[in-house]
Records
---
Amino acid sequence: MKRRWFQGFVAGVTVVMAGLGLARGESIKIGHYGSLTGSEATFGISTSNGVKLAINEVNAAGGVNGKQIELVEYDTKGDPKEAGAVVTRLVTRDKVVAVIGEVASTLSLAGAPICQANQVPMISPSSTNPRVTLVGDYIFRVCFIDPFQGFVCAKFAREMRGAKTAAILYDQASAYSVGLAEQFEKNFVAMGGVVSAKLSYNAGDQDFNARLTAIRASNPDIIFLPGYYTDVANVAIQARKLGITVPFLGGDGWDSSKLTEIGGAAIEGSFYSNHAAPDDPSLAGFVQKYEDEYGAKPDALGALGYDAAMLLFDAMRRAKSLAGADLRQAIDDTKDFVGVTGVINFNETRDAVKPAVILEIKDGKAVYAAKIEP
Ligand code: PHE
């Protein structure tokens, strides 16, 4: 008897939900593509956590225009071919109204042309290579770009650390690493610095001894290492074994709890530029929410994923419809969107213009060291 009542109750609820437009099929589908596995796994996982936090918050408050947000998410495994395949699936089979991703610029460059060709807006939370949004007018990002990040790193090295010489070691297959190395060099030299050595590697390389020996011989004041955290940690470990004691300096690609987990003492006293500092008091509310949900402190990617999703929902509320052209226009019309990583406005090339922070690795943690405005 009890059970029959229960079934009736459930059926009643289903009808009510359908009446309110909350049933499956009445929801709004958005996509996320990211590296959930592989040597950049924390990039995708942190972003996914941030996106889901935003979705849960918005859904609990009634959704967007009365509809629940539904997430379709795929793993790129850090591979450009895989990124292209899953973005094609998102736009052609799942028919999402918008796509969030990727983190790595090389992977965003694989996904963006597919979104552009299908007129599905894409928002990269964190790809910083300028070419990403130049793919077309459906491609946006909620972060700064590498000409600025390269300037920030050069200024920090040259003016705040007083470095006269810098060696550069970059990943030659990564659009991000190649571009950031170039921008750092250009700015460092313009500020009167000298590049003592410039060498490259391929992501996943295990033996950096020959390259580090050449760098040691050039006797730099600092070593610029614009790579992703796994390679960066391996390079640092091998450098310390060779007796190299100068600090490393990198970009946002260092941002992972794995950096200090793998790098340990070798990465202590080094620096990197980033989109946000977890110990910045203005992030406290977000950090608390994230910690309550996931039991760990967020990195910048969690915050940027959250901002990308919230900005998208804000645009959906203002859009004439969720058709690609209307939603694209509403995203483009965004004004002074208050994100957890700062106030977001897009320039003519649909990039956010925001300050950068420099973090220092101290006692296994990345702590705020400086802020540099655009
Ligand atoms: N900016 C990097 C890229 O374009 C990705 C990244 C952003 C990694 C933020 C970590 C933190 O490839």
Note: Residues 43, 103-105, 126-129, 176, 252-253, 255, 300-301 surround phenylalanine (CB under 6 Å).
---
Amino acid sequence: MLTKILGIIGGGQLGMMLTEAAKKMPEYISDVIVLDPTKNCPAAKVGAKQIIADYKNKNAIVELSLQSDIITYEIESGNSEVLESLNRDVTVNPSPATLRTIQDKFVQKKFLQENGFPVTDFALIESPSDLKEKIKLFGYPVMLKTRRDAYDGRGNFKIERPEHLTTAYKRFEEKSMMLEKIINFKMEVSVIAARNTKGQISTYPVVENIHEENILKMTIAPARVSKKILEESERIAKEIMDVLQGAGVFGIEMFLTQDDKLLVNEIAPRVHNSGHHTLQSSATSQFEQHLRAILGLELGKTDLLHYAVMCNILGPKDFEGPYEPIKIEEKEEVYLKMYQKDVAKPQRKMGHLNIVDVNDTRDINNLIKKAEEIRNKIKFRKQIQQ
Ligand code: ATP
Ligand code: MG
């Protein structure tokens, strides 16, 4: 089999971990090229070549396609129109059509609803008066969302009272918006699913996600749910994979309601933060799985070999700038992954910590406690110039 050159749109931490996985598969992938606007992006630091340009820059995407055999992406805000128009010699996965459906949250929810998947009530918002009218259907509080280019909750505004309506609309005035009924969920969960180019589908066991200020703080693998919910979440994820076109890993976020129903929140057409635990907890990491999927290889095993807790390391709120390298005490069950970003910024994802239950105690509370203890010891210190 001829080796391939892999092009990735986006070279942040996800592109970095995809590059590292690719380097372990030299019999299939000879080189990785990323397109990213930040010079010396995380993926470039681990050996990817880099085209420095905006993710949506048409010339840069075409250049990437000329240099690559297969193209994938680590962000959903890519330019699906340009990807769709590329020369047939390069394969893009997940397919640009799927990216187009997913990258607009309204189109995505409609697609899910039309295919019979349970979602929260939602509506398109086209004007301030439209917002005023549609809020009546849902009642307060409601969630106003931008349809595109949102991440880490930055495109969400929870409207608690009528007085906040104008502020909320003004926040996103330049963008197209949608409205969602707020779910008073019991838990947020997600399933990392994969589909290869031959149609083989596999899912990792459902995990539990804890957010703080709209940013993922911790993932607990497996989620503390009943067997019934575990199976139901997997079934939904598999059915979603059946209706989506293209190959790759997808992160499927769901809400578990107070009466134990699962609602699909959103799909990410890429490797997902809640799948980082697989680097140590599973035989196949989500990054290797994604590459296997787009290369048309048989998918790897997805069983959870050990329980695990993943903790994100975010930039501290009172610090911005270059920082001294972060080090922690080395232990068999503790894995620190820093993304080598040059500059820390408040709430920026700087790295993650995996605590793995190597002794199979299955004591999740203890794993959470350990993760929090270690994370709280991590401090960002201003880098002293040499
Ligand atoms: P991310 O990049 O973290 O996946 P995002 O910016 O694309 O997120 P969402 O996933 O839509 O945005 O929302 C972020 C978080 O806001 C969710 O994980 C959830 O905690 C909360 N949220 C979003 N929609 C709702 C809703 N309808 N009801 C209750 N909470 C919600
Ligand atoms: Mg989300």
Note: The mean pLDDT is 95.
---
Amino acid sequence: MELLIVNDYAAMSYKAAQFLASQVILKPECVMGLATGSTPEGLYKELVKMYQMGLIDFEKVTAFNLDEYVGLEAEHPQGYKSYMYNHFFKHVNIDPTNRHIPDGNAAQLDAECEAYDYAIKRAGGIDIQVLGIGRNGHIGFNEPDLKFEAETHVVALDEKTIRDNARFFSAIEQVPRYAISMGVKTIMQARKIILLASGKEKAEAVYGMLYGDITPTCPASVLQLHPNVTVICDFQAATLLKK
Ligand code: GLP
């Protein structure tokens, strides 16, 4: 794993945008795996700026999001469909038919998961996957568990994740208990992965991911086995790495 420690959130976002922009320039019809959460907001801002300056063109890009809550109404402001639209999709020219987010309201959730993996394969696989990291080491919504879940699946959210994500909702009771998430195999099949981490509350998870045992109790640790991962973290998230 390549580790880039940068000064702050702004530098992390800019560096990540450079990785994505170079992917789009090298392969305009690339497939991007995208993440939500507060961490990649700055990355999307930078990409929108680059697009507006005419530096990159998303016309031929296909995007697959990592995850979505189960059971939030389709246009719920905290749903990842709204997140992606507001932070990124409405500002750039990714063809609406090429924007994919798991449907957390599908009548048959298992069939939705299977169809999602199939759609990724049919698109040629993910060229570059963006990841954040949960305080408990989760990637996407792959929560600490006794085994790695391979494919896209329905997951019961961890108590820590529910508490962390409560800040986006009016009350903790509003946070969905389930989500659909790309699985570890789906993520690991991406040709290139960039993982972003900012803030001291991520320091422990970042340490575990980089130097801990490879274990499903810290899902991000599986990335140690991927041949092409770049971790971009700010000084705060790297606190435990500097000894
Ligand atoms: C969320 C998302 C993850 C994200 C993580 C960290 O619940 N499902 O994809 O990486 O938690 O979120 P944040 O960036 O807000 O700290």
Note: The CA atoms of residues 89 and 96 lie 8 Å apart.
---
Amino acid sequence: MKQDYYDILGIGKNASTAEIKKAYRKKAIEYHPDKNPGDAKAEEMFKTAAEAYEVLSDPNKKARYDQYGHAAFEGGGFGGGGGMNMDDIFSQFGDIFGSAFGGGGFGGFSGFGGGGQQRRVKGSNLRIRVKLTLEEVANGVEKTVKVRRKVQAEGVTYTTCATCGGRGQVTKITNTILGRMQTAATCNVCGGSGQTIDKKPNEADAHGMIVKEETVSIKIPGGVEEGMQLKVSGKGNDAPGNGVPGDLLVAIETEEHNTLKREGDNLHYDLYISFSEAVLGTSKEIDSVTGKVRIKLEAGIQSGKILRLRGKGITSLNGYGAGDLLVHVNVWTPKEANKEQREFFERMQNHENFMPNPEKSDKSFFEKVKDMFS
Ligand code: ZN
């Protein structure tokens, strides 16, 4: 059982952005690995606090967490909750502590587990946007995109950096908000990779890199929402030398559908039928995210009736089934009537069949709405 993110940071559910940040700052300092060397429990707390902050500081993730709890981040390919490594945590620090930490493009912290361990340089992230139709959102989709990535040029050779001796870092004493600390700063000659370029082809840049167009396939799960961000690991820019590639960050955009409106995992469809269709009964073809669906309307159907097509909504992002398609029946009353039509309705208006006589089962609009959400 995972601990509640609010409890981890010691704040209430109504905490402001500033309060969340302040609470995390406090925890990060308390459990910082440089202050608690070799303390596995502190390390765990440090990671847990970072994870809690990662979610609660992001309005989108926070909203999902408030609604679904930890389940919001299970399944699916989303970052946030779980799986944060030390690089991710330290890259948050620029935001939290200012430039004293994590300065420079490659992060600058001493790493973990007793020093002397070389941090691997990570290539920069790339960002793209992907626009999805409602059908793609509902069912999930695999998108193929072209990405211009930096990759190592062929024929580049490296040699060990003379300044840092291949460690990628130089040790120095720094005054930080944690007090005087020995930190390992990134070597500014090799940029932290521990290697400098020996030979490179002409078309390569100073780091031995060239830009190459690559086709990347992105699996997008059903149920995503506008503004969400997916991460494709390793499809950002490659890092020079023996580093690890950055990530490709995919921002989700969604198109509006002409007739279907989304609300959470449910979809709504407004169906208009004529007065005669309501009296005689009919069948209608309506839109759904899996194509047209034909539905039958019984004779005597009331305006305001909601027909629920189970499982015809949006696939749940958490992998628990799908929402429903709710068809709202609206009976269209003629706005004009000719002489013949008027006479017909005048003859009928006192007939008992035309007298409103709602039964228990013809619930009021408000009761239906209540039912829908319960
Ligand atoms: Zn160096």
Note: DSSP finds nine helices and 15 strands in the chain.
